[in-house]
Design goal:
Enolase-like, domain 1; 3 domains
């Protein structure tokens, strides 16, 4: 039996944030971490961003191990007894705790083509597989036109690979961006050498020697050296659900990051929390939320927590374009685009009944605090009110 004051299930960015939060309050309390990967916590966004733009693997690591954490890596927690405060892992080892954190993240949704190797680019080992393939292969399919798909398609193209991008929506990031911006991205990616198959689906993938032949619903056949898919994740809630915790689109937590059991917290991709600025519960799958909410949860575990009312931001880089965003980016909302230069630099506001619910800063930087202020403002806005509000 391994005994810890604080036990963290999960080894990602939320776990790293939690260790930081605990150590702000408690410098010496024993911290244990159970992680399915064989690696300590690292900067996951680098897998589709900076590692393709010249950064080395040495740059991905956090300093979590220097905080006096006992890491049990390559292990999966499979049993939780909240009454006795014990966790069991898949190798039969048991751990006891006083405070527990679920930082289990999410599991990639997988396509039905089980006879071929598809890289889902969720973990460092996925990046390594893809990087190895690029040493000998030149043609790659990217399935999915959302956050990960758009990033890795751009990254591969910038590394002189021929990229074929296939997704069922009409345009890149169609569910997030206004239609005109999303359709601009279709052309922008094509101008950068990416073959974009919008409103199309993958029907069949057949191995052919060292390649794969991919057939789409529109009748196209594409021979590629590797396939990457980014079709979303599902929150990893199985262990929490089996222990009787409340699960609804993630593990439900209160403003202190506590579950229905006050000795058990959750943070990061897996946590469903109420955000007062948006006036509803949300689950956020981005770096800023993972680390910051992890810190809040860590402080709660150490007895000096505060309410997590923070509205996280996220960001992306797409060739020579980039953005930061806050709040709800849902293309079904009303939008107002305040362009300095159409599709190249500007601010897009997402509104619901006149209230700003999200802000997209398109090639506009260092304005996230201003975006949060607009979202926090309870007034209703017209497009005229918003023009020039964020310079």
């Amino acid at each position: 039996m391994k005994t810890y004051k604080y036990l963290i299930v999960g080894g990602g960015m939320a776990a790293h944030g939690a260790v930081r939060g605990i150590r702000e309050i408690d410098k010496d309390g024993e911290i244990g971490l159970i992680g399915e990967e064989s690696h300590p916590p690292y900067k996951r966004p680098y897998l589709s961003k900076k590692l393709w733009l010249g950064k080395t693997e040495d740059s991905v690591w956090f300093d979590t191990e220097q905080s006096g954490v006992s890491m049990h890596l390559g292990r999966k927690a499979i049993g939780l007894d909240p009454a006795s405060k014990r966790i069991t892992d898949d190798k039969g080892d048991e751990y006891s705790y006083q405070r527990l954190l679920f930082a289990t993240g999410g599991t990639p949704r997988r396509l039905l083509f089980t006879s071929v190797e598809i890289i889902y680019l969720r973990f460092l080992d996925d990046y390594r597989k893809l990087r190895e393939l690029t040493q000998s292969g030149d043609r790659f399919a990217v399935i999915g036109g959302g956050f990960i798909g758009s990033e890795i398609a751009a990254a591969l193209s910038m590394n002189n690979k021929q990229v074929f991008m296939v997704f069922p929506e009409d345009a890149i990031s169609d569910r997030m961006f206004p239609r005109d911006l999303a359709e601009f991205l279709n052309g922008y990616y094509r101008d950068h050498g990416v073959e974009v198959f919008a409103a199309d689906t993958v029907m069949e993938i057949t191995p052919s020697g060292s390649e794969y032949v991919m057939k789409t619903g529109s009748g196209r056949e594409i021979a590629v050296d590797g396939i990457v898919a980014g079709v979303g994740i599902d929150p990893s809630v199985g262990l929490a659900e089996s222990a009787g915790l409340t699960v609804e689109n993630g593990i439900v937590v209160d403003e202190m990051c506590r579950t229905a059991n006050p000795d058990v917290c959750a943070a990061g991709d897996v946590a469903n929390f109420y955000n007062p600025l948006l006036g509803k519960r949300v689950r956020v799958e981005h770096e800023d939320n993972a680390i910051t909410q992890g810190e809040y949860a860590g402080r709660t575990m150490a007895g000096q927590g505060g309410p997590y009312h923070y509205l996280p931001y996220f960001y992306s880089d797409l060739f020579d374009l980039g953005y930061e965003a806050v709040g709800e980016l849902d293309s079904r909302l009303q939008t107002f685009a305040d362009w300095k230069e159409p599709f190249r630099e500007g601010v897009i506001y997402y509104l619901n009944q006149g209230r700003v619910r999200g802000v997209l800063l398109w090639n506009v930087w260092d304005k996230v605090p201003a975006a949060r202020e607009v979202i926090a403002d309870s007034r209703t806005f017209s497009p005229e009110d918003l023009k020039g509000r964020i310079a």
